[in-house]
Amino acid sequence: MGVTQPDPSDLGARVSELERIVRDLSTGAGLRNASMKDGTTRVTDTNNNPRVIMGVLPDGTYGFEVRDADGRATLKVNDVGLTEPVINLPYREAANPVDVSSGSFTLAWETSLGAITHDSLRWASLIATDSGTTAEAELRTTGGLVSGLQQVPPLNASSRSVWSWRPPLVPEKRTDRFLVQLWVRVAAGGGSVHAYPPDVLFMANGADIGATFNGL
Questions:
Q1: What values do phi and psi take at 27, rounded to 5?
Q2: What is the per-residue pLDDT across 7-53, written as a single tens digit (0 to 9) for each?
């Protein structure tokens, strides 16, 4: 049985085609219209530490993460929004005095959000009461959203009221003022409640700070 010899002209054509393919791959635009399913792309430094991660992140969400040389995330955006860094918020004293003797809720402090960057916020303030006086405090936002109540016992001069609150906020930029406010009232007794400025006030991803729908 004879052996068929390859046609030299056919081999030459195949080699020329392979050369053309290699040339196109080396000079063409890379990853044009490319897609990836459930994958992860990593950029590592000279020590093989991941510095940029894109796609499926280590926590199972989809997004983009930048890390420092020690492996800490310095920037992270995933399918719930911006999660790193947390955004500290400015605040200003309201027109009402922070010393409140009324049994009705009174505005004490507020902050204005120009952009809602995360789905949750943490607010912590010292709220003190006089002897024989109990108080209640809550957070409110534009749109009538109200947090859970913090109960403040009599003669409280050191406890901080803390909310890790996840109201239904959608990450967005706003042209109007979106306010978050601290309201306090005397619940019982004849003294006053003293609402101090927040010493912790920032927005963050709710899962990172254990936020709840009422903040308690």
A1: -110, -15
A2: 555 667 777 777 777 777 666 556 666 677 778 888 888 888 888 88
- What are the boundaries of each domain within the chain? 40-79, 87-209
Residue 115 dihedral angles phi and psi, to the nearest 5°: -145, 135
163 neighbors 188 (Cβ within 8 angstroms) = no
Please give the single-letter amino acid code of residue 163: W
Rg (CA), the chain: 29
Which structure tokens are listed for 117? 């960057």
The Cβ of residue 213 has, within 10 Å, a number of other Cβ atoms equal to: 13
Side chain identity, residue 134: T
Instruction: Give the count of beta carbons closer than 10 Å to the beta carbon of residue 124.
Output: 14
Could you read off the pLDDT of 114-139 as tens digits, one per residue?
A: 777 788 889 998 898 998 899 999 99
Residues making up the chain, counted from first to last? 216
Q: Which residues contact 188 (CB under 8 A, 6 or more apart)?
A: 133, 134
137 vs 152: CA distance, rounded Å? 8
Which class in CATH covers the domain with range 87-209?
A: mainly beta
- Cut 0.85: pTM above it: no
